[in-house]
Predict the 3D structure of the following.
Amino acid sequence: MLNISKLSKTFSPNSQFERHVLNGLDLELKDGEFVTIIGSNGAGKSTLFNAICGSILPDSGAITLNGRDITLMPEHKRAKFIGRVFQDPMKGTAPSMTIEENLALAYSRSRKGILSTAITRKDREFFKASLAEYGMGLEDRLTTKLSLLSGGQRQVVTLLMCTIVTPELLLLDEHTAALDPAAAEKIMEITNSIVSKNHLSALMITHNIKSALSTGDRTIMLDAGKIIIDLSGEERAKMTVDQLLHLYSEKKKLELDEDSILFS
């Protein structure tokens, strides 16, 4: 359902600061597949998400979602069918507005017309029932401003905002990295529940290799703007963190050896 072909992006081209961030990246995500993404800083993970969302445009390559070419589609149009949860619990929300007002803005995507925070009794009951599923007491705090919530509580609201109208694709951008371990574990539990319940197609960036190998259906590793490891099925199930790091070292060594041959 998501197909990325030969995606490339270079920042500051033709200058001393030139940096190739995506290098002909290919990725196919099946309907309902949950893929975790790992890689060192600068590997191209966030740039990949930015290209999918439309906050940056690639230099070359193509992105299609459910048969629709979105490569050059404006970001605000993609936001109607792509949900993204950021590392910062405040990003993508209106902190000075209440929980129910934020949810109403997100919910209005399912209706034709101008975005509105007008909340009906039916809407409020729906919001309460949806929040009650996650066991954090937020259903009783609908009129609380988002800025007064803890980081974990804000991420629950953000997750619900991104999925209250089922998206075609959900992007989780290190969405537990800023939380304490207990809150991060709770948010991952809720994330897995939401993805499974709604049969969502999802990509999740994480620096936690153990979590990457135990979450979802597949794990890919980016390096220098390319996918160098792609694990699924029994191979992934048996893979340990140490084995994965060893595999990464072997891949890097092979690349260096190939480069040596090219330049010798």
